Automatic annotation (TrEMBL):
Residues 155-392 form the Radical SAM core domain. Keywords: 4Fe-4S, Cytoplasm, Iron, Iron-sulfur, Metal-binding, S-adenosyl-L-methionine, Transferase, tRNA processing. This is (Dimethylallyl)adenosine tRNA methylthiotransferase MiaB. It comes from the Bacteria. The keyword Iron-sulfur applies. InterPro entries: Elp3/MiaA/NifB-like_rSAM (IPR006638), Methylthiotransferase (IPR005839), Methylthiotransferase_CS (IPR020612), Methylthiotransferase_N (IPR013848), Methylthiotransferase_N_sf (IPR038135), MiaB-like_bact (IPR006467), rSAM (IPR007197), rSAM_horseshoe (IPR023404). PROSITE patterns: MTTASE_N, MTTASE_RADICAL, RADICAL_SAM. Its cofactor is [4Fe-4S] cluster. Pfam families: Radical_SAM (PF04055), UPF0004 (PF00919). One of its GO terms (molecular function) is tRNA (N(6)-L-threonylcarbamoyladenosine(37)-C(2))-methylthiotransferase activity. Its EC number is 2.-.-.-. Residues 10-122 form the MTTase N-terminal domain.
């Protein structure tokens, strides 16, 4: 156990599971600790404190979180083990049952870690000898009382940054636990987010991805709109690119699409959750749109931005997804001009309304449906890439090295590879790709 009253010369290890929002928040936690004198461990070093930011979107995610906690304890014996994130909010008692966990911090308190670590040190120092040690301390606010919006922006060594603009969700889809894990929809002000974007630019960042739980719902707590936000961000000097992460189709208005098409810096790249291409299943899910609206959004994007990349989320095997409903989903997806699918197999979550739906899909059928959609996705993605062979692409090169190659992404989010060059990191370069590399799933020149 470390004396957390003294941050100086301490080392921290960070473990993150789940969405880009989690990664942005972990980065903010790391920055706060760094300002107190705590540095990130180098490979092979032992940490004094382990921060584990968890996900709970599926049963598998819960299992991965438990394994990650045990891994952190094994790799960093004697370190203070701090667990936060969605799993910590939803199932703190389950985490407390894992040997070696010291602190469990819920959603409301996640980014107040410095004060919580000091308070924990005071509790430990006030105990006699080892009395109370080995017992997890849970700091947790009921979901209905979660109100705080904590700003976060990733600050890792990539050229792409993730800016948290919104948190929480007021949608209660029958399969989803996120509203219980994250609380009600809330957001930062446009002025504060513009300032964070300026700071990214001042520190050399070239690209920002807007993240949140339901970012199209931006403005609940400030009376502003998502369209107002992207217009203000587009005026920030120094940021070459913005991308909009997952946005609900009913909140992706024609005005937002048209602005992106005419803006200086918003890229022709959208990520839109469909979840099912069957109207019957969408009703069972309590989604707020139908396939006709979704088709309209996709077609409007392609009308004003013909070369746009469109990623689509789909869940297979949800309760109520009868074979004929999946067939309708498949046919719908075949008929729309998406670029890539992100396919998820349905996982039953305790406390969700989906458990009241009587028809359950077996694991083998879930697998078959998943494989069918992945095959369709691969076909569409490869076709999209090949369409851009011989076409000029503006690529922003990233730092990571892969067997002597470096990767970058075009405006359309096409992955491009070339031999590694340190001088190219963070630079925009116009290239004309000559071939498709199936091994790296990228274009090369």
């Amino acid at each position: 156990m470390i004396d957390i009253n003294i941050f100086e010369n301490k080392k921290a290890a960070y473990f993150t599971l789940g969405c880009k929002l989690n990664f942005a928040e972990t980065s903010s936690i790391g920055k706060a600790l760094q300002e107190q004198g705590v540095r990130r461990v180098e490979p092979g070093e032992k940490a004094n404190v382990c921060i584990i930011n968890t996900c709970s979107v599926t049963e598998l995610a819960d299992k991965k979180c438990r394994n990650m906690i045990r891994r952190a304890r094994r790799e960093h014996p004697g370190a203070l083990i701090v667990v936060t994130g969605c799993y910590a909010q939803l199932s703190p008692e389950e985490i407390a049952a894992i040997e070696g966990v010291d602190l469990i911090i819920g959603t409301e308190q996640k980014l107040d870690l410095i004060n919580l670590l000091r308070q924990h040190a005071e509790r430990i120092s006030s105990q006699n000898n080892s009395q109370g040690l080995g017992i997890s301390h849970i700091i947790h606010t009921p979901t209905k009382d979660i109100r705080t919006f904590s700003p976060s922006v990733s600050a890792d060594d990539r050229t792409r940054h993730f800016l948290k603009v919104q948190d929480g969700c007021d949608y209660y889809c029958t399969y989803c636990t996120i509203p219980k894990a994250r609380g009600r929809s809330r957001n930062g002000s446009i002025a504060s987010l513009v300032q964070q974007a300026r700071s990214v630019a001042e520190n050399g960042g070239r690209e920002i991805v807007l993240t949140g739980v339901n970012i199209g719902d931006f403005g609940r707590t400030t009376g502003e709109t998502f369209l107002d936000l992207i217009k203000a961000l587009d005026r920030v000097e120094g940021i070459e690119r913005y991308r909009i992460s997952s946005i609900e189709p009913n909140l992706l208005s024609d005005e937002v699409i048209d602005f992106c098409a005419s803006s200086r810096h918003f890229m022709p790249h959208f990520h839109i959750p469909l979840q099912s291409g069957s109207d019957e299943v969408l009703k069972l899910m309590k989604r707020r749109y139908d396939t006709a609206l979704f088709r309209n959004r996709i077609e409007h994007i392609k009308q004003v931005m013909p070369d746009s990349f469109i990623g689509v989320d789909v869940i297979v095997g949800t309760r109520g997804e009868r074979p004929e409903y999946f067939e309708a989903c498949y046919r719908f997806l075949e008929s729309i001009p998406f670029t890539q699918l992100h396919v998820f197999s349905y996982s039953e979550r305790p406390g969700t309304k989906a458990l009241e739906i009587p028809y359950a899909v077996g694991s083998q059928d879930k697998h078959k449906r998943s494989q069918a959609l992945l095959k369709l996705s691969d076909k569409k993605l490869r076709a999209f890439y090949r369409e851009h062979i011989g076409q000029p692409l503006r690529v922003l090169w990233e730092q990571a090295e892969h067997d002597g190659m470096m990767l970058g992404f075009s405006d359309q989010y096409i992955r491009v590879a070339k031999p590694y060059s340190e001088e190219s990191v963070g630079q925009l370069e116009e290239v004309v790709p000559k071939r498709f590399d199936p091994a790296m799933l990228s274009l090369t020149f």
